[in-house]
Write a structure and sequence with these properties.
The protein is α/β, with parallel strands linked by helices and 116 residues long. It contains four helices and three strands. The protein has a single domain (2-115), classed as Dehydroquinase, class II (Rossmann fold), CATH 3.40.50.9100.
């Protein structure tokens, strides 16, 4: 995870974007971070298994007035049927899946384009 964070910070510097990296296995901590994200210009989220189950994360994201990119390291549409449902997708500007950890770098580039 530290390698991904470092790569993201380097990628962000290319676009003059400061990257704040946050990871949690707690739904409530993720929601707290989303609600505190007003100080950021955008949000990239990999909600993991909460993608398929959390209406609360959906609702927290829905009220944000900023670009949101949903990412998944694996292609969730090639996995089990229940993983094909995402409560995040409907509130995201875009979805990037299946490119391994490069999804984060692609998302940073995409955010840069959305912020122009």
């Amino acid at each position: 995870m530290e390698d991904i964070e470092e790569e993201c910070k380097i990628e962000g510097e290319k676009y003059n974007l400061k990257i704040n990296f946050f990871q949690s296995n707690s739904e409530s901590e993720i929601i707290d971070m989303i609600q505190k994200s007003s100080i950021y210009k955008s949000l990239i989220i990999n909600a993991g298994a909460f993608t398929h189950t959390s209406i609360a994360i959906h609702d927290a994201l829905k009220i944000l007035k900023k670009p949101i990119i949903e990412v998944h390291i694996s292609n969730i549409y090639q996995r089990e049927d229940f993983r094909k449902n995402s409560f995040v997708s409907s509130v995201a500007n875009g979805i990037i899946v299946g490119f391994g950890t490069d999804v984060y770098l692609i998302a940073i580039r995409s955010i840069n384009n959305l912020l122009k």
